[in-house]
Every structure is written in C-alpha cells, then in structure tokens.
Amino acid sequence: xxxxxxxxxxxxxxxxxxxxxxxxxxxxxxxxxxxxxxxxxxxxxxxxxxxxxxxxxxxxxxxxxxxxxxxxxxxxxxxxxxxxxxxxxxxxxxxxxxxxxxxxxxxxxxxxxxxxxxxxxxxxxxxxxxxxxxxxxxxxxxxxxxxxxxxxxxxxxxxxxxxxxxxxxxxxxxxxxxxxxxxxxxxxxxxxxxxxxxxxxxxxxxxxxxxxxxxxxxxxxxxxxxxxxxxxxxxxxxxxxxxxxxxxxxxx
Length: 252
Hints:
- The chain contains nine helices and eleven strands.
- By secondary structure, it is an alpha/beta fold.
- Helix 7 (156-162) packs parallel to helix 9.
- The longest helix is centred in the middle third of the chain and has 14 residues, at 122-135.
C-alpha cells in the first residue's frame, strides 16, 4: 500500500518512530521510494521521491487556510454546517467515517460539534495524529480542539459497528476524479494516489444509517449519483459539492 513507510532520517524523533510502528503498523526505511513519511521542522509530512514539484502533504489545523476558513468561511451558514444540523444544535456528536486530512472535521469542531475522525489508511491516520498533536500545543486551538476531535484508526466498516451512537454520521468517500481533471488541485491528485478510491463506499451507508441517531450526511461531487442508490431526504448545495442529507429523527 502506498505511503506505508517512513524515512528514518537522523533528526527523526525516536519516540515518534516507535509510535508509527506500534500504532499504525508503518515500516521504517533508510531508502524511501515513492510515497513516504518524513520529519521536517516539527511536523510529520508525506512526500514522493518521484514528484519533486509536489509539495509536502500534512495536517495543519493552524495553517493560514484553515484559520481563515474557521474564522471567515461562513460559520454556521456554510453548507456543511446546515447539512449536519449545527444551525439547530451546535453540540452535536459526529462520526466522520472517512476523515481524510480532517478539513471538514475541523470546520464542524470549530462550530461546536464533537467529532470522531475515522481513518483506515495508516499514513493518513499518522498525519492526522500528528496534526492533532501540534494543535494541542497551539495557543489558539489548545483550549478547545483536543476535546472536540478524537482520532480512531480503523476501517470505516469496523468503526461503524463498534463506536458509540452519535447524532450524525458524516461520509465523504473518495470519489474517482473525472478523466479531464485539470482543475483538480495537485494535492488532491496526490491524495488520490495515496488512498485510492473508496470502492466499498456503498457498503458504508447501511452501517451509517444504523449507527446514527439523527441523520446521515454524504458529501458528493455534483456529478455523482446517490451513495448506495439511496435518495436523500434533502440536499444542500455547496460551492463545489453537494450534501445529501438522510434524516432519521428531528434534532432536539
């Protein structure tokens, strides 16, 4: 699987190396090829030995872009906030069963939700864990983010049968990009290579529906069909995507 090794450079923290091996099953290497994790500055990043123009991929909840979206991105008027139901009940519990780089989870947590991030790809889960670690040290995030964001490293299908019942299950499965994908950002192209597509995405819907107490929300490209062929209760259009909302019960 791509991205499942880390480069043991001289400055790589020994404790982190042990954690990557024990917690995520990642392999150490002194000669990385293709996708690999490495240590730079004070962060864990994902690189590719063959893509020199591809910038480092990392989880940075305190980045300029993340901070701007959190403070000026529209707040509860954002489509994702409306879809999940945070305009009615800010303290919702949410399972983000396909967490990726955690960007949507950060938005939800910043609006008051308590989010469990589920990620099955070892390298991506390691990036999330490192992002959460650094966020716990950031003066703007440390007082609220750690208590609202929790990482679970597990396959989504497993997590959806074992986690405590949340108000909402949020699904954003990796969808195959259109062949003419010149508009797809370089980072997302790279991310597709690392995690592949979620070919089992349809199987997540019945598990999500069974687990959630209030609703299931599915993020989809505008051109994509309904997940598992299930017609939603309502749809909320975002700037570049839509959110299919499946309502089980009213938000108290």
